[in-house]
Amino acid sequence: MTTRFDVLSIGNAIVDVISTVDDNFLTDNSLIKGSMQLIDETQAQSLYDIMGPGIEVSGGSAANTVAGLASFGNSSAFFGKVKADQLGNVFRHDISAAGVCFQTPGAEDGSETARCLILVTPDGERTMNTFLGACVEFGPDDIDEATVRDSKVVYMEGYLWDPEQAKLAFLKAADIARSAGREVSLTLSDSFCVDRHRDSFLELIKRDVDILFANEDEIKSLYQVDSFDEALQAVRQDCKLTALTRSRAGSVIVSKDEVHVIDARKVDQVVDTTGAGDLYSAGFFAGYTNGKELAQCGQLGALAASEVISHIGARPQTSLKDLASQNGLL
Amino acid sequence: MTTRFDVLSIGNAIVDVISTVDDNFLTDNSLIKGSMQLIDETQAQSLYDIMGPGIEVSGGSAANTVAGLASFGNSSAFFGKVKADQLGNVFRHDISAAGVCFQTPGAEDGSETARCLILVTPDGERTMNTFLGACVEFGPDDIDEATVRDSKVVYMEGYLWDPEQAKLAFLKAADIARSAGREVSLTLSDSFCVDRHRDSFLELIKRDVDILFANEDEIKSLYQVDSFDEALQAVRQDCKLTALTRSRAGSVIVSKDEVHVIDARKVDQVVDTTGAGDLYSAGFFAGYTNGKELAQCGQLGALAASEVISHIGARPQTSLKDLASQNGLL
Asked: What is the mean pLDDT of residues A203-207?
């Protein structure tokens, strides 16, 4: 079955503001290293005021994934809401220039385009503070049915559960996808996000999700268990196909009949881990939507993640298609 | 004589939009590699539409210099005009967070904050396309006399000659500085900029400029000569102190009585040359305003330039004070 898009992703449309800090900055400001917390406009302004100089670069978890997928040469689309302001124009330019079809109209009124204040510590770990801004305007009306039907996989981020209307939008997209015989995929996004929406995620995974992405903390939080292996056994019962990422320990892909353990790729220096999970998904889909074996999908995920953590920013800075070709993976 | 600021710099307040391109992109779009060209809003939009994904980072030549100087631990101030819009807020945040005093009010109306579309080729060379935007609103009324009087050196970029009111503003600042016994410094900015304003620059250099910065192309353009040495001999007659930068060939500092030839510092990989000259000036001033020998000023300039060309963006990403200390230069 031919579709126009390999993957349609739905997520918060965010511009990242990246700044380097030392560890004391996190403790002094009661920030939990490695997490994503939601902040309001006032908090965003207060934090920005005390941050050092920044670099602005388009981000958003699900958006990063399709930007990465486009870099592999795959066709992709994105739904998400910016405001029609300068940063909204930046987001729209960057994702379109990456080769992703992005046609969700920008909001004319309301909050500014969302931004994520990302604090990167010397170990390369990122701590994210997200002001959702215009993302709260995203809702079911922004789901273009024809695009959903014309995509092999509809992928969305767990972060979408935070703005209420976005959650409804995703559920609508999932229904359309299922009725069109398409696959539905979810990334759990963040362990605190899982805490906020555990029951709802579990229900969705059992009912609608064909392909689940989670890191170790997220999957343990989902099942409220202490060991990775317990979580793995649990998710194996609930979901057809799951890719579990474990940072330097690589990843595990598990279905009812298969288990693959994939090594992480060594990088010279971890500069900024922002987007590692997002790009793992991109690589996975680059293989999956081309009918590759699961192990190869995981290797492509590891390859894309290794590229993005070797520089500042959550989108690839080199052609992932060329990189995969050089590594004999595509 | 104690002053509040070591250097006050005056320049165009610009946010850079940096994207990597191959050489064909430049030739296909009739862009001259390594140059800065002025473009209007329509041209800026057209070029942006065909550029790849970008990174936004505060720039502006003279602004980069004081941001670099602040990184050395020196006190500095900046005059320049943004609009009170999102990119204007980015510029204001970044230069303030770098430790530079920046109090020029933003324009409420008129064009958007200036941006420079910077295309970086695989050799690390940058080609700049500047939409001046709100910079044209900068004028003599933006010159705060007390700040000028309270700065050891007033430094400005030749690019200021492009918007007419900014030129008048600089001349006003130069007059105040001279009458207060302060020094006046100019960077020629770009050889095409020198072409546009040659007579005016020559007059200014002979009358007002104590410290001149120029690269090889600029100084040859100023005197319309073919050889670097001819240009060097000419400027030696016209200006008390000149620092001439020559990219990989290092720099030459020349006064009536002294000549110093400074080697460039080796860098592992030239990633993006944007800001090399700006940071050379920063390092030079870090030494000069602390009473260091001219050779040491040049070495500090070379050090700061080597830091900024080793990454994307025209402002330092590490403490130049620490770097200078590690290299035994301060």
From this structure: 96
